[in-house]
Amino acid sequence: MPQTHPAPAIDQPAPTTQAAPPAELTLEERLTLVNAAMTARLDEAAVAYEVNTAHIDTEPVNLADIITGPVDTGPAPLPELYPTPVAALLQRAHHRLLTDGWCKDVLVDEDGARCMLGAIRAEARGDRSLEADAVTVLLDAIRRQFGDDIDSVPTFNDAHGSGGAPIRMVAQAAHLADARSL
What we know:
This protein has a domain at 85-179. Helix content is 53%, strand content 0%. It has 7 helices and no strands. It has helices at 27-53, 63-66, 85-100, 116-124, 128-146, 153-158, 164-179. The mean pLDDT is 85.
């Protein structure tokens, strides 16, 4: 005789149990869960990368062959000089500051670096009139940018901890002298 299975009762309600609402996670707990999930994903990606690249034959790279320091080629060549004497003097002084270095509190330090006035004096080569004209234009360029409170080029030079602004001002003074045909 065939076995009959009782038909399920459709009209019986399912037991209702109310689950407790999930507890609210703190920010720290959520961050810990996200960190764990991301760590697992990164570990899985690292394994997949190693599996996918295992067949690639590579030779170790010697970083000394790739990373090299600059070759010492000597000082940079002096760019074409301005046609006017004061502008050319300031341009040479700017170049000297770039190549020999900048200093403060002295005209020339023990390493040969110079302050703004020291570079101008060296490039003027004893021509005090040309030196005075260059210092006047330089002070004017400084005052245009930094205000009339600056009383001298050495004061401006010594007020800085690095040569960025002083060297830039000598270059700007060269442009100003050229614009004035000095």
